[in-house]
């Protein structure tokens, strides 16, 4: 047999959100943080047009998309790097920094792909426990050593939905050595309504060791096409582009992302609808007696402990798929009102039984 890397014996496969169906045929997928809305008509038209050209390779540099993102945010095109989803851009970042003995610091629990990506890159993970449900930036700063190459700050944090606010983030950045890259993972930025949560793009311009991650998978509704991007100082963006697999962002994905930015105002109306549902769902859960941290993402978090698996199973029996992280808690994506009502009914029934 071939001799595989030893790390593969210890790395678990990524667990995506699942779908479930109740005995009477109901199925509500609230396990993957997807938008409940299909792409806008103008985006579907762009997808259809691009589909007629898939016998050609995509633009490997994705020039049009890169320039569109740069124009949207008022940054140089040289500061933009792409990948098939922001998670893959994270993988590309690790590929630029990985070397024997290198460390990456991140909060835990946070995005479950971080340890997987770090292990596969041969980088040592330094997991800093959350303070309550939020990042403990003081502890993260203290965890930085001469071996640290990268720190990831996920805000809003997946899966807890909590955020890092301006004063604490800037104070943290002031403590990080300039040769350590700080990655602000802002995959859910469009759902933020707290005015005290800084836009990472307002910080990176004066800090060459700060990189900002965004994605088209969530608010823009292109999860099935996998397009993410990073905005950072030119040396960082250049390094990330060097390790990107050629043609990684396909032709249809590029066209759909450009069309989505053109229709951004209409798309953000849908985001606002999700934000309103998020508020409604959280308030309903609070009225049922649950403790629910304030969320700035398109999901809510329940700290359930040993009841996590049973809660997920009870929801599944009602046709509602949630994302359990046993034995810590469950993340519930915000869907359309019908799906959210089905979840709230299941949550109320579980609490009554408990």
Topology summary:
Elements: E1 28-29, H1 41-51, H2 63-73, E2 80-83, H3 86-97, E3 103-108, H4 113-121, E4 124-129, H5 137-142, E5 148-154, H6 166-175, E6 181-185, H7 201-204, E7 210-215, E8 228-232, H8 234-242, H9 251-262, H10 264-288, E9 299-303, H11 308-317, E10 320-321, E11 323-325, E12 329-333, H12 337-353
Parallel strand pairs: 1-10, 3-4, 3-5, 5-6, 6-7
Antiparallel strand pairs: 2-8, 7-8, 9-12, 11-12
Q: What does it look like?
A:
- By secondary structure, this protein is α/β, with parallel strands linked by helices.
- The chain contains twelve helices and twelve strands.
- It has helices at 41-51, 63-73, 86-97, 113-121, 137-142, 166-175, 201-204, 234-242, 251-262, 264-288, 308-317, 337-353, and strands spanning 28-29, 80-83, 103-108, 124-129, 148-154, 181-185, 210-215, 228-232, 299-303, 320-321, 323-325, 329-333.
- The strands form three sheets. It has a seven-stranded mixed β-sheet with strand order 2-8-7-6-5-3-4, sandwiched between helices.
- Strand 6 (181-185), helix 7 and strand 7 form a beta-alpha-beta unit.
- Helix 1 (41-51) packs antiparallel against helix 9 and helix 3 packs parallel to helix 4 (113-121).
**Termini, distance in Å?**
51 Å
Helix vs. strand class: alpha/beta
> Which stretches of 5+ consecutive residues score pLDDT under 50?
none
**Strand runs, count:** 12
Q: Quick one: biggest sheet?
A: 7 strands, mixed
Shape: globular
Rg, nearest Å = 20 Å
Instruction: Indicate the proportion of strand residues.
Output: 15-25%
Topology as a string of helices (H) and strands (E):
EHHEHEHEHEHEHEEHHHEHEEEH
Q: Number of helix segments?
A: 12
- Whole-number average pLDDT? 96
What percent of the residues sit in helical stretches (DSSP H or I)? 25-40%
Strands side by side in the biggest sheet = 2-8-7-6-5-3-4
């Amino acid at each position: 047999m071939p001799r595989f890397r030893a790390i593969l014996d210890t790395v678990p496969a990524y667990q995506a959100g699942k779908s479930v169906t109740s005995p009477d045929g109901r199925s509500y997928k609230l396990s993957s943080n997807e938008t409940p809305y299909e792409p806008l008509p103008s985006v579907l038209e762009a997808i259809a047009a691009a589909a007629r050209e898939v016998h050609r390779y995509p633009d490997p540099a994705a020039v049009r998309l890169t320039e569109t993102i740069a124009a949207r945010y008022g940054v140089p095109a040289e500061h933009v790097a792409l990948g098939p989803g922001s998670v893959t851009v994270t993988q590309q970042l690790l590929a630029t920094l990985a070397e024997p003995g290198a460390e990456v610091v991140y909060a835990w629990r946070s995005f479950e792909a971080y340890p997987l990506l770090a292990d596969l890159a041969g980088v040592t993970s330094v997991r800093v426990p959350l303070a309550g449900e939020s990042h403990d930036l003081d502890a993260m700063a203290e965890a930085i050593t001469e071996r640290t190459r990268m720190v990831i700050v996920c805000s809003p944090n997946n899966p807890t939905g909590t955020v890092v606010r301006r004063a604490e983030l800037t104070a943290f950045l002031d403590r990080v050595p300039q040769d350590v890259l700080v990655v602000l993972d802002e995959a859910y930025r469009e759902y933020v309504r707290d005015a005290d949560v800084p836009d990472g793009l307002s910080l990176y311009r004066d800090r060459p060791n700060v990189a900002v991650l965004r994605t088209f998978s969530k608010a823009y509704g292109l999860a099935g096409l996998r397009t993410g991007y990073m905005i950072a100082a030119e040396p960082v963006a250049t390094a990330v582009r060097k390790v990107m697999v050629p043609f990684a962002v396909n032709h249809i994905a590029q066209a759909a992302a450009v069309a989505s930015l053109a229709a951004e105002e209409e798309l953000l109306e849908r985001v606002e609808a999700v934000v309103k549902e998020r508020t409604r769902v959280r308030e309903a859960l609070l009225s049922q007696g649950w403790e629910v941290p304030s969320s700035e993402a398109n999901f809510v978090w329940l700290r359930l402990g040993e009841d996590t698996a049973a809660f997920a199973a009870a929801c599944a029996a009602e046709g509602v798929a949630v994302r359990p992280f046993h034995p810590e808690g469950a993340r519930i994506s915000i869907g359309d009102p019908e799906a959210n009502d089905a979840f709230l009914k299941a949550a109320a029934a579980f609490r009554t039984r408990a």
